[in-house]
Design goal:
The protein has 123 residues and is an all-beta fold. It is built from no helices and eleven strands. The strands form two sheets. Strands 2, 4, 5, 6, 9, 10 and 11 form a seven-stranded mixed sheet that branches. It has a four-stranded antiparallel sheet with strand order 1-3-8-7, with no helix packed on it.
Length: 123
């Protein structure tokens, strides 16, 4: 059974930083494209950043220049370092994965496997 478990969420003041982590199990993470999405109340799920199997990243517009995605295929983890946070970053952040040798678009329908999310609140 594929499992993605997020951690690292919390409350932070504007301008602060948080590091999210996603632990994968039940499949070989190194063969999966992995991504972070977020969803704020009343809004659609938004792609934040994606990492190809070789670690090549791509970012959504809201993340560019502030967030960094990284992965460790041995530990089967995916991290998101978030800097210069602002209240608009408040959302539930989700880890997602899809078996793919190439980078997948940051569209929610492209990913079959999802974690349950971790809350980030910026005030």
């Amino acid at each position: 059974e594929v499992q993605l478990v997020e951690s690292g969420g919390g409350s932070v003041q504007a301008g602060g930083s948080l590091r999210l982590s996603c632990a994968a199990s039940g499949y070989t993470a190194s063969s999966n494209c992995m991504a972070w999405f977020r969803q704020a109340p009343g809004k659609e799920r938004e792609g934040v950043a994606v990492s190809a199997t070789d670690g090549s990243p791509s970012y959504g517009a809201s993340a560019k220049g502030r967030f960094t995605i990284s992965r460790d295929n041995v530990r089967q983890t995916l991290d998101l370092q978030m800097n210069s946070l602002n209240p608009e970053d408040t959302a539930t952040y989700y880890c997602a994965a899809e078996p793919s040798p190439v980078l997948k678009p940051l569209e929610a329908y492209e990913y079959r496997f999802w974690g349950k999310g971790t809350q980030v609140t910026v005030s």
